[in-house]
Here is the input.
Amino acid sequence: MIGNNVVLDSNILIYLSKGELEFKELAAGYDNVFISVISYMEALGYEFKNNVEKALIEKLLASLEIVQTDIEIANLVIVYRKLKKIKTPDAIILATARKLNADLITVNMDDFFGLDCSVRIINPL
Here is the structure.
């Protein structure tokens, strides 16, 4: 993918739905904003406090490009899981960022620390 890319972690989607982060601020400076299909599933599977939060996440998800897991991502996940004990969903999200040559925005820095120095991990808080 050409351009300045970013992948949003699942937790960032939840923060956005609660109004604790602003999408325009997160997306500023990026040409393309993506999420992994894993983040899509995790976000919609989250138990929201009210219908307003749920509606916000549904609207946001409809505006983002969702990246499906493919063999390239799967092979990166295998490498990551051999390097460090990492949950498969987190490994898929990191591998998605790597494939897209994208930054990864998350509040869970420790989940990704030391796995792939080619992916810049950003905590917006």
In short: Residues 17 and 59 are 10 Å apart (CA to CA). The helical segments are 10-17, 23-27, 37-45, 51-63, 71-83, 88-99, 109-112. The chain has a mean pLDDT of 94. The chain has one domain: 5-122.
